[in-house]
Amino acid sequence: MMLLSLLSLVAGLPGALLPERTIRTGARFALGPAYENADELSPRGWYVRAVRLHSVALVVTGVLGLTLAGRGDDAGTGAPATEGAETDETAD
Fold first, then answer.
1. What is the C-alpha to C-alpha distance for residues 89 and 92, in angstroms, rounded to an integer?
2. 57 lies in some domain
3. Distance from C-alpha of 5 to C-alpha of 10, rounded to nearest angstrom
4. Could you tell me where the Low complexity compositional bias lies (predicted)?
5. Is 82 part of any domain?
6. Is 92 helix (H, G, I), strand (E, B) or coil?
7. Span 36-83, pLDDT tens digits
8. How many domains in the chain?
């Protein structure tokens, strides 16, 4: 759970902070081999806002996951951590 939260946080930060640059980089990798003018394409305003919204959602999800992992919940299920768990040994 913690690894997925970190991955979500790291994947969301660039798009949340610099959505246009993230779109240009993605276009260069995805469209570059097929188009001669991939760098000249410009995204519409709604697409930039959608990328920012999606990226912010990823960041929030990552922060929430890390917060839940830090609380000691068992994989975010709400089960308490097993600090003083009973053992199978019986007292004589």
1. 9
2. yes
3. 9
4. 69-84
5. no
6. coil
7. 888 888 899 999 999 999 999 999 999 999 999 888 755 555 555 555
8. 1
